[in-house]
Amino acid sequence: MISALSAIWYILPAYIANASPVVLAKIVKNRHPIDFGAKFIDGKRILGDSKTIEGFFFGVAMGFLTGVVQGVVVDSVRTYVVRGLLLSLGAMLGDCLGSFIKRRLGLRPGKPAPFIDQTLFLLVAMLLAYLGGVYSLTMYQTLFLLVITPVLHVLSNVGAYLLKLKNVPW
Predict the structure, then answer these.
(1) Checking CA distances to 9, which of 40, 71, 90, 114 falls within 20 to 30 Å?
(2) What contacts 160, CB < 8 A, 6 or more positions away?
């Protein structure tokens, strides 16, 4: 149980980063798409209107701040700051990659894509942390996160829907 909780503690900056843009979207109405409305070679939008500059940076900032708070709590600020930055940046890049893939598949923004929506942000976050030399989870913790994240993702989306932060429960 402690190993599972430490895995969630470890990945928390990525979770916070991934969830934060939904909150920002309710506060800031005039947001700017990351792709500036540009289309890919297939004629479809690169990412779509739902991936915004403001949301991307807000997500990274919230994940980074989560890492800072974690570092203060355990008295290891430097390690947690770097990890928080890499995990949150990876989560947001993974989320954008998911949108890119969904546009190629012809899925409109907001439409569900089960594996892509629930785990791609996590995989890219873990990859970036690994490449940055701050990945410290065991294989079992990694597998635990790959299993539990889709469940947590669905539950958090339903919660955001019930709180009227999202228009759909996925």
Answers:
(1) 114
(2) 19, 22, 166
